[in-house]
Write a structure and sequence with these properties.
This protein is of the alpha/beta class. Helices cover 36% and strands 18% of the residues. Helix 10 links the parallel strand 11 and strand 12 (308-309). The longest helix is centred in the first third of the chain and has 22 residues, at 80-101. The N and C termini lie far apart (48 Å). 50% of the residues are buried. Bound molecules: D-mannonic acid and magnesium ion. The site of D-mannonic acid (CS2) has 11 residues, from loops. D-mannonic acid binds at residues 37, 160, 170, 210, 212, 262, 312, 314, 316, 339, 389.
Length: 402
């Protein structure tokens, strides 16, 4: 069976999504998410202009060889645009293989290692009180793990704090917005937030927090230490992810578990972290981490170094990426937790899917392949709208995220 063509589909049912649909000469098609938040059209062009033309006529049986061809054959390796495009092709090929064989993708990877996938939701509030209330809302929905974020007192806006209930979207239409950050108030406030949450809801809920790369290593060490009494599942992205060495210092100062990796593209972004066991959870996911073919290798190296996987699952990852992550999570032996931000009804309608939430867990379903589809008619109602992720500055205007 050969690749006949590849369509790059762009739609905006509330936010932008790029999807690759590969069709075969025998009428089977597979889907891959190619969404890179705020940089969507760069991936669409890379796929359309540089990748899809090289795929026509290739055998869909050769998933590994096609991955190697696109990665090693391209001369220009790595980077989020390239790797998101490769991920989309790889995911679509796994979807096709599952459909051809009549099996869900997790079965092809080695079968289920668990009955379903533990997920965490996002409780956000403009202040501590609102965020604490929002945790209760998630517990009522059945979540067993909740990430908690609150706006920083005295600041007009803070990155990573969702607006409204249940949905979260950091990108904004038009030119990139700017958000401000104040380290001192943030470091004082976060331990108070988690003290309140623990007092209100007790010990059984798993709690997580995302620092969104805004601290220095020693600040992160202090935050981790201050959070120890509240027993977090993880502290995510304490520092900018470029410098893997930074995690050594954090590790030396705290037993709060550490997670990083949503912006990583290949294993080379994480080898020092993994080999030194400076992190507990690696947050790379299928869509930005080279597809299922690459991520399974990354997970194997992590497994041998006692690092567990904890896939990124924000709303800017489409239901195709969510499904791929869930199949991966069902199989991967060193699984930790899966992030799960709910998509809007409009998005769910464009991408009908088989995964289901119950009692704090998601199951990918047992449809052949990934179990996700794409509704062209609905998608056509939502044309692309330029949107950007915010730029972060300190209160005095300094660009940071060292
Ligand atoms: C966040 C993301 O989900 C997370 O952990 O860091 O929401 C991030 O802001 C977006 O995915 C960026 O596109
Ligand atoms: Mg994050």
């Amino acid at each position: 069976m050969k690749i006949l063509d590849g369509e790059v589909l762009v739609t905006c049912p509330g936010r932008n999504f790029v999807t690759l649909r590969l069709r075969t000469d025998e009428g089977v098609y597979g889907l891959g998410d190619a969404t890179l938040n705020g940089r969507e059209l760069a991936v669409a062009s890379y796929l359309r202009d540089h990748v899809v033309p090289c795929l026509i006529g290739r055998s869909v049986d050769q998933i590994e060889d096609i991955w190697q061809y696109l990665y090693r054959g391209a001369y220009w390796r790595r980077g989020p645009v390239t790797m998101t495009a490769i991920s989309a092709v790889d995911t679509a090929l796994w979807d096709i293989k599952g459909k051809v064989l009549g099996r869900p993708v997790y079965d092809l990877l080695g079968g289920a290692s668990r009955t379903s996938v533990l997920v965490y939701g996002h409780a956000s509030g403009d202040n501590i009180g609102e965020a604490v209330d929002e945790v209760g809302r998630y517990l009522d929905l059945g979540y067993r793990a909740v990430r908690v974020q609150a706006g920083i007192e005295g600041l007009p806006n803070s990155y990573g704090v969702g607006r409204g209930h249940l949905f979260y979207e950091p990108a904004e239409r038009g030119r990139p917005p700017e958000t401000v950050f104040a380290t001192g108030p943030y470091l004082r406030q976060v331990p108070m937030l988690f003290e309140r949450v623990r007092n209100e809801y007790g010990e059984s809920v798993e709690l997580l927090h995302d620092a969104h790369h805004r601290l220095t290593p020693i600040e992160a060490g202090r935050l981790g230490k201050d959070l120890e009494p509240h027993r977090l599942f993880w502290l995510e992205d304490p520092v900018a992810a470029d410098n893997q060495q930074a995690f050594r210092l954090i590790r030396e100062h705290t037993t709060t578990p550490l997670a990083v990796g949503e912006v990583f593209n290949t294993v080379h972004d994480a080898t020092t972290l993994i080999q030194n066991q400076w992190i507990d959870y690696l947050r790379m996911t299928v869509v930005h981490g080279g597809g299922i073919t690459h991520l399974r290798k990354v997970a194997a190296i992590a497994e041998l170094n006692f690092v567990r996987m904890g896939s990124h699952g924000a709303t800017d990852l489409s239901p195709v990426a969510m499904a791929a992550a869930l199949h991966f999570d069902m199989w991967v032996p060193n699984f930790g937790i899966q992030e799960y931000m709910r998509h809007t009804d409009e998005t769910d309608a464009v991408f009908p899917h088989g995964y289901r939430f119950a009692d704090g867990y998601l199951h990918p379903g047992d449809r052949p392949g990934l179990g996700v589809d794409y509704d062209d008619v609905l998608a056509a109602k939502y044309p692309y709208e330029p949107a950007f992720l915010p730029v972060n500055r300190l209160v005095d205007g300094t660009m940071f995220n060292w």
